[in-house]
UniProtKB/TrEMBL annotation, chains A, B:
It comes from the Bacteria. Gene3D superfamilies: Electron Transport, Fmn-binding Protein, Chain A. Residues 215-225 have a biased composition (Basic and acidic residues). Residues 195-225 are annotated as: Disordered. This is Pyridoxamine 5'-phosphate oxidase family protein. It comes from Streptomyces prunicolor.
Length: 225, 225
């Protein structure tokens, strides 16, 4: 039997990406990184402003080994050229152990370190915005009106390499089934949490009866994250 | 008619909390801050380590105007005494506009700035851990085994004042119904995203048939976030 997973090189380890805490939850598999990033569309972008941390939620898209994110040209957190930490987390449920100390969360999380660069080439900028749009809403780029020159100029697009990344995943039941607490008359297990797309809500300004396009409507009831 | 909302003072504004971008999405209502924090249990904690940002997902609990979070005493991001930025975000759906430029996300987000302090007083530590536990799983503190002295010593508990906070909320349809794009034959609206608690999954190590306690089981099917 061959390994069914795609052949990937492991994630490189350095002082920032080494799993110091809860190393058993760490993964060096690039396929895990890609899967976590592809399952979401909002990251938490950390920057240092005047020596202090600032963490901003923002949308992102993945194109191979590159992450794109964007914002207004006036944004203080999207300057490019400065170190960032981008973290994407999916919370999969509560881990309810026999003891409070062993309580935790089932989750998948990716942390990417790097120095993003501002994309200025108009063609790459358009490709990056396409990636962002299609990442969140597949099919939308060829459906909605594309950005014009003025809108492109008003948008800052940053690209971040996915070379330096750290992945942590926790799944399964609590860890205290093999100790003395296992004798306690206490239920233990997990309470799963799932994210689901709902029914598309039409803009009230639309002509009545305008249907949502198939690429949007078909997501209803499917999971996200 | 009196205002049905609880009387609260507005959130103070300074250079860090002023809404620079998308100011119409900003809220200075402390009740909004409390509601966003109470609707979640995982935050993104930003710290500066060796001059670079690090953003770590971690659980938190709110007790009045104080946020607690915890971790291992060995954690590099939980030292206390250094500035942090704690961000809690609920993603409520995609905003699909007529033009790509107007696409966005409906969300509720709170960003708290401050310098947390390490809680060392044993009684306050126990109260903080109780807050953390009850915040994520109401009813669990009086059900599971409480931390013993050794476990308390192995836990770092940080407390952060909620004085310096910034809240942003976006709801409703896209913003491009009043421009020339409204004439386009393009559907516009939102695709809601909801988080729901699932069926409790018992630890396979439990005696078969052990039921989940009522305070856990009753959450099945209810929303989170």
């Amino acid at each position: 039997m061959t390994d069914p997973r795609p052949a990937t090189d492991p994630l490189p380890v350095n002082d920032r990406t080494r799993h110091r805490r809860l190393a058993d939850q760490g993964s060096l598999d690039r396929a895990d990184l890609d899967a976590i990033l592809d399952a979401g569309f909002v990251c938490h972008l950390g920057v240092v402003i005047e020596g202090r941390p600032v963490v901003v939620p923002t949308v992102y898209g993945r194109d191979g080994r590159r992450l794109y994110f964007h914002g207004s040209v006036a944004s203080r957190s999207l300057t490019g050229g400065a170190p960032v930490c981008v973290t994407v987390t999916h919370v999969d449920g509560l881990v309810l152990a026999r003891s409070v100390f062993e309580h935790g969360v089932n989750y998948r999380s990716a942390m990417i370190h790097g120095v993003p660069h501002k994309v200025t080439d108009p063609e790459e900028k358009l490709a990056g915005l396409r990636c962002l749009t299609e990442h969140a809403t597949p099919g939308q780029w060829s459906y909605a009106r594309l950005p014009n020159r003025k809108e492109l100029a008003a948008t800052t697009l940053l690209a971040l390499s996915l070379e330096e990344a750290s992945v942590k995943i926790r799944t399964g039941p609590p860890d205290d089934a093999d100790g003395p607490d296992a004798e306690l008359p206490v239920w233990a297990g997990t309470l799963p949490l799932t994210s689901t797309w709902g029914t598309p809500v039409s803009d009230p300004a639309l002509p009545p009866g305008t249907p949502a396009p198939e690429h949007v409507a078909r997501r209803e009831g499917t999971g996200q994250g």
